Amino acid sequence: MDKRWSTVLINTLLVASGFGTMHMLEKFKGAVLMHYGITEAMMGYQQTAYVVGLFVAFLLGGTSLFKGSFKRSVALIVSFAAIPQFLIPFMPNWWGVVALRFFQGFIVALIAVFSNQIARLFVAERPFAKGIILSGIFWGGIYGINLAKWAGGSDASWSSVTQAFLISAVLMYVMLAIWWLFVEDFEIPKEEHSSKANVWKIPFTWVFGFTFFPALWVVFTLGSFTLHNVHFSDDQVANLVMTLEVSMALWSIIMGYLGYRLSLKNTSNRGLFKAIVSVMTLSYAVTFVGLFILWRAISANDYTLALLGIAITGIVQGTGPAFWTTAPAAYPKEIYPEASFALGLISNSANAVAPNVMFVLVKSVTTGMVIYIGMTLLGILLLLVSSRMKLPIEELS
């Protein structure tokens, strides 16, 4: 296999091992509630802390924390997930667990750091490579859910919970060691830039950054919203969640490949950007259809139709591979590593906002689905606006 693609595959496995932390703790809910003597409402704080950590990771991306040696940065990011995974089962206090979950959210910084690597290895193939790597988020979610199920799930003893957490923590470092042996290092620039090249002062950064915001709003709330508004059996609900994870993983790869095929037609900066906008717009349009099917299914309590709606709606993740290849396509080489984190910070503000807003506003299926459909339309609108803007690489040149 071409060494570049073997790098993509091992990146994907590393991402999957890290994102196994995403849902694992909540799958042990019964055991956690009993061990710490907390309420279900308090249990929810750990997931809130995790998604806030996802947002803060991009905020730190503008600092020197994830600059310099690429391999060192990846090892640091993996450690933010692995060390808390070792410590969580031994934490005597619940609020200590919540704090550790916040740091585990930093694992998402892998996505921005790998964008720098993919930009060095590929041109037209960037969306496909990125789509494969992003699918690791959802393969990791499936792995974490199944590991928790193997350990006994909600009815597990605390010793079984501890065993599952230690296995997953060790696996992260095993994967990191394998990854380290096969991947070449490079420097992520640390130097300061003039105000003219400050990514935060470029209007394009803000407009395009928010094009991915609606997708993340759906990705981070659809599963929990569905769980609170359907009347299916526990097994059917579990199947819906698993279908959503698999769907998003597969759509990430499929739409990444489509982005690659479109990028081949014109590998100029503007040509690559047109391919990005096309893939994201198509993903939002099909998501719109999937949401309507899901809305009808939930309203009619039709489980089969709900599975179809969930499978189609998962294409919302098809926006990801295109979005994460924007920085190297649209920004000068000197600042695109910083631009990756800036775009990630703006878009991932959805992680910090969406769950709480949905909790407050959504009192019925209709309200929730109207919000989701509105988000897809907002995404398309922002893409149309950004497609008419000058790219930073065009503006600064």
Strand order of the largest sheet: 1-2
CATH topology of the largest domain, anyone?
Answer: Growth Hormone, Chain: A
Spatial extent as radius of gyration? 20 Å
Question: What distance separates the N and C termini?
Answer: 38 Å
- Which ranges are low-confidence, i.e. pLDDT below 50, for 5 or more consecutive residues? none
- Biggest beta sheet summary: 2 strands, antiparallel
DSSP E strands, number: 2
**Any idea of the CATH class of the largest domain?**
Mainly Alpha
GO molecular function: transmembrane transporter activity
Keywords: Membrane, Transmembrane, Transmembrane helix
Transmembrane segments: 7-25, 45-66, 73-92, 98-119, 131-152, 164-183, 204-225, 237-260, 272-298, 304-327, 339-362, 368-385
Protein name: MFS transporter
Brief synopsis:
The protein is mostly helical. The protein has helices spanning about 5-20, 20-25, 30-35, 40-60, 70-85, 95-105, 110-120, 125-150, 160-180, 205-210, 215-225, 235-265, 270-300, 305-315, 320-325, 325-330, 335-345, 350-360, 365-385, 390-395, and strands spanning about 70, 185-190.
